[in-house]
Amino acid sequence: MKKEIRVKYEIFTNYNSHLIGVAKIGFNSDYSKDYKHTINSEDFKFLQDNKSLLKWGDGKTSPLTNIFIFFPNYINLKSRSEISNYFNLLNDSVKSKSFDNFKKVYQSYISNLQNWFELDLNPTLFSYKNEIQKLSEIYINNYDRFVEEVWPIEKAKIQGKVQILSSRLSKLNFIELWENFTNLKFQFNYYDIILSSGIKNGPTANSLGYEKNWFYYNNDTEWLIQFICHETGTHILINLLKQILIDKKDNNFDEDFNIMYQAYENLCSFYNHFILKIAGLKHSYEMRDYDSVRFYKIFDRIFSKNKNISAEILYREGINEYKKYVA
Fold first, then answer.
1. 60: which DSSP letter?
2. Which of 124, 179, 265, 277 is at 20 to 30 A from 84, Cα to Cα?
3. Cα–Cα distance, 16 to 265 (Å, whole number)
4. pTM assigned to the model
């Protein structure tokens, strides 16, 4: 059975993108000017005043990013009722200082996330009780207006890009190419690419789970094709990063997260030169702010000496070589 990349749009991810984009949480775009009137003014101010609790990027998140953005996007809450149920249960959990019932209700989603990273429901969330309550009210109370005034316009824009990417990707077996090149397996039979508006100039290629990724819809099509291939690699190779984080926690590997994460992204980019070439495409994107030129030279030098080297050994040797340059 062919493992397919499926391009979609989902309403809650787009609603979340709407709130984030209007409130300019971590980035600015003309989306805020276009739709600021659709969010209650007091809610807009609260979102802006508390953006440090929600913003994310480069593998790092803020205290409330996962429970307000990534996890409900992963679930794809499909109605006001589902949104209310989610956030009411979240508030009950915080008030009772126990996530047991929350975990029970969303057990299947939490279980699937183990293939990516464990959902972090730690006790530090209890200290944000008031902020969580207010943000929950904002998410519930602004939904209807989004559905009525914003979603019909934005959905029409996204649909065209879904069709273009779906047609292109159906002819490109990216998952199979990555599996053959790395001798590693993609853990699901599908990989969902969720497109949204609202996050222009913000973080894109946001992994929601092993089998689900979130992109800004209106980036250049060729860039999207190349970077969807790149992200296929980041998911196949995720255990490299997870294992090295375990080793760091156990004091078996002394390195900071930035270098580990940059090396992981750059290794995927390095491999993607070969994957894209096999697919008849050219690698033309850059890993901005990731010291990509230096990492490429390091990985290329190691790989050229042993083309059968495993991804794990190449990753760790690359990190050790890089440390010599930045010491």
1. B
2. 124
3. 26
4. 0.95
